[in-house]
Amino acid sequence: MINNISISNMEAKAKEFNEVIQEQYYPWFAQYMVMKRASIEPNFHDLYLKFFDKVNSKSLNKEILKATYENCKFRGALLAKNLGSWLGKFTIGRNQALRAKEIDPKSLIVEAYEKGLMIVVIPFTSKILEPCQSSIAYRPPNPWTMGILSLLAEIYNLPNLKMNLKFDIEVLFKNLTVDILMELVNVTKFFQMPKYLLPAHVCHWCGTWKGDKICSSCKKARYCSEKHQALHWRTGHKNDCLQIISSSAASNSVLPTIGKVPANTSWPEFEIKIDYEGIFDSNSGDENNSKLLVMQRHGKPDAMMQSWMDQFEADSDNKCWTSFQERVSRAPNQVLRYCREPNAKPL
């Protein structure tokens, strides 16, 4: 089925997939797609992503993302680069969040610098960031993206850096239309900071407190207390610890491990959802039109809304407040709003 997928027969193949593959086999299929296809066929990544869009299964996408995160650990240089490209397209390229507790590019780069693993991690993270160019949420000047680019610019400026790594960084900056020379001027000197100024490691169990205690076996997992270390050990770190130790001794152990935060007390993650909210004319001089628009969005107004509407006057300050209230009411849980239109005004 997968061998014969093409643009022309994608609709038929997606229908065939939904008829043949039951949901209970999604974990197996996800492992197959990640390791037998995505990791060795980078030229077909876009085709496979379009196929999954046609299949339109949230549970399948979840399993594929889970398999991708799991297989990004302990892989060789070529596989890591291909999986980085796949992970970036599957998350950032779709305006979905890249989970920091699974793969944190900044932490990877810092750990690779300390352990001499940049030969693999730099191409890996560069491939993850490539889709930022077409992403609505992640494209520069997104602060998260620029923070990683600043770190890469500092590495680019390191003496005796291998030319192939310099080339990977240059290509990434060019694809994202970011001037690497300007970034070098504003470079943070992160790697030259004293250790007491560097960000503290967090607890691998709760993810919310300083991890100043370290696992004596794997030397990777960190904890804020003995209680959290014991909880983590009983709920899965015992097996992970053995895997980390055995993988560290293997010749293909190139990617540092990033511990997962299993507790429910970790900071919540929210989906990055890009929606067009429409246009609201805050310069309209018609007070009734503004009231009517609010009524249409809310239906029957509650006491607070009715009180606010009764006190409305068509002066500039209150009109600005009207615009703000109407815009926020469209998605009360949304925490960030911005508009890329040339004539946009602050809310």
From TrEMBL:
InterPro entries: CNOT1_CAF1_bind, Not1, Znf_MYND
Record has Metal-binding as a keyword: yes
Keywords, in A-Z order: Metal-binding, Nucleus, Repressor, Transcription, Transcription regulation, Zinc, Zinc-finger
Membrane-spanning residues: none
One example GO MF annotation: zinc ion binding
Main location: nucleus
Classification via Gene3D superfamilies: 1.25.40.180, 6.10.140.2220
Cell location: Nucleus
Record has rRNA-binding as a keyword: no
PROSITE patterns found in the cross-reference section: ZF_MYND_2
Gene Ontology CC annotation, any one: CCR4-NOT core complex
Protein name as annotated: Zinc finger (MYND type) family protein / programmed cell death 2 C-terminal domain-containing protein
Source organism: Zea mays
